[in-house]
Amino acid sequence: MEQTFFYDICGTIASIGMVLGYLPQAVRTIRTRKTDDIALPTFLMMGIGGFFFMLQGLFHRPDIIWSLFITNLITTTCSIIVFGIKIYNDYFQKK
Fold it and tell me: What is the CATH number of domain 2-92?
């Protein structure tokens, strides 16, 4: 019982930390559309990692790990948005 509680607390704290770590960059990028200082491979790999962590949470047996799934759904979505803006700025909007 105590181990499950500790496990859930750790997952919740990790989830909050991950979302709060991603959101400021994503919000700033969406608002300003500036991506000059963003490394494209970093957001690509973070998006891929988040996607597979999301799948891990979804397909975990016997129960879905909702904190893992929801956290990585949010972070993957942020990564995709930032990655898309970066691609648009770097390759389609030649300066």
Answer: 1.20.1280.290
